[in-house]
Specification:
The chain is an alpha+beta fold. It is about 55% helix and about 15% strand. It has 2 helices and 4 strands, in the order H-E-E-E-E-H. A two-stranded antiparallel sheet has the order 1-4. Strands 2-3 form a two-stranded antiparallel sheet. It starts with 5 loop residues before the first helix and ends with a helix. The relative contact order is 0.13.
Amino acid sequence: ASPNSGYPEAAVAGALGLRLGGPGAYGGLLLDKPTIGDGLRDFDKKCIEKSIRLMYCATTFAVLAAVFAAQRLYG
């Protein structure tokens, strides 16, 4: 139903060693979706903190890459 969400979800699952996805309710309907990741560890508060750090690192990298690309094109 949302083909683009699997890529970032898989990246986070792999980076944190979690199993994400699986069955979920969408608009009152239960959908049996596959899981993503190996589930090497249990989900806890540290996973949230690590995922936020991962998001900040990825965003910083993307901004730096965009600035570098713009510098090469226009500078």
